[in-house]
Write a structure and sequence with these properties.
Elements (H helix, E strand, L loop, with lengths): L2 H4 L4 E4 L9 H28 L6 H30 L3 E3 H34 L4 H4 L2 H26 L9 E2 L6 H6 L6 H34 L4 H29 L8 H26 L1 H23 L1
Parallel strand pairs: 1-3
Antiparallel strand pairs: 1-2
């Protein structure tokens, strides 16, 4: 993996927090808290879906994959940031940087595909209710879910092959807080035109393609909802889509802010904030959104809490 490159640059230095001379301990505690909430929140959602029989439906099956992806995305970036805070040096080795890029792009690409699959599930449930069990059976769910993971892996493998061919001639300072393609291509000493072209093309297909699919799906969903005569039926249909729509807007909104920044007026602080929102805050928000807006999830959570209380009471009595 880029053996020749390593003879020139052995490690990279992150400049994302270079303007903060003091207060690293507070940043460490803040990022640690965010990471714990992300992991525990998504793990709670995943565990409830596995244990509660009422949540064993296609929608929650896909949600369990979303929780896994959010844990993975956060785990790719935050632990290294925490270690750097403790060491008081914002560095990463060449091999670790390549691995971080590979896994980050794999998981974020897979999440784009999974959000599109979840939109298809809502389309089938609302627009084709009589055929829903056939359109989204267990076999279809399994194929679609794991296809999204492969979707992300293939995309990241392509970019890793291209980025490993670049040379870094002594310039090792990355204007970022973790390894990502755009800031790394900026410090390459040879032509990165092919990398930029590949990034733009894959951005259109891997990110833009699923987003357009989601938009078109919800056009049909909205059309079907408006045909429902009862207000209760409309409200129920909207409620099944609300959490997914919020997650889509949060994810893609932060993604656009992070990767489609205007060149004019760009600052390191703005880029750092955009990266934090996209890869660190967003994975934390998803379980919160689904917990607060979804009656089934809230019901399963209450049931789990009641079961835990009863077990504790039984233990105290014994």
């Amino acid at each position: 993996m880029g053996i020749q490159n390593q003879t020139q640059v052995m490690e990279f230095v992150f400049l994302g927090f270079s303007g903060i001379l003091n207060g690293h301990i507070y940043l460490f505690l803040a990022f640690l808290a965010i990471y714990l909430v992300t992991v525990l929140g998504n793990l709670m959602i995943f565990t409830m879906i596995q244990l509660d029989s009422s949540l064993r439906t296609p929608m929650y099956y896909f949600l369990s994959h979303l929780s896994c992806l959010d844990i993975c995305i956060s785990s790719v970036t935050v632990p290294k940031i925490l270690v750097n805070f403790l060491c008081q040096q914002q560095t990463i080795s060449y091999d670790e940087c390549m691995a971080q890029i590979f896994f980050l792009m794999s998981f974020t690409g897979a999440e784009c595909g999974l959000l599109a699959v979840m939109a298809y599930d809502r389309y089938a449930a609302i627009c084709k209710p009589l055929h829903y069990s056939h359109l989204v059976d267990f076999k279809v769910c399994t194929i679609l879910a794991f296809a999204t993971w492969i979707w992300g892996l293939l995309d990241s493998a392509l970019h890793l092959a291209l980025i490993s061919r670049l040379d870094f001639c002594g310039v090792n300072q990355i204007h970022h807080i973790f390894c990502d393609l755009p800031p790394l291509m900026k410090i390459a000493c040879n032509d990165a035109h092919i990398n930029e072209l590949a990034l733009n093309i894959s951005g259109f297909f891997v990110g833009g393609g699923p987003f357009l699919f989601i938009i078109f799906s919800y056009v049909f969903i909205l059309s079907s909802i408006l045909k429902i005569r009862s207000t209760t039926g409309k409200r129920k249909a909207f409620s099944t889509c609300a959490s997914h729509l919020i997650v889509v807007f949060v994810y893609y909104g932060n993604g656009i802010l992070n990767y489609q920044r205007p060149s004019a007026g760009y600052s390191l602080a703005t880029g750092t904030l955009g990266s934090i929102m996209y890869c660190i805050i967003t994975p934390m928000l998803n379980p919160i959104i689904y917990s607060l807006r979804n009656k089934e999830v809230k019901g399963a959570l209450k049931k789990a809490v009641e079961t835990w209380r009863k077990s504790k009471h039984h233990q105290s009595v014994c």
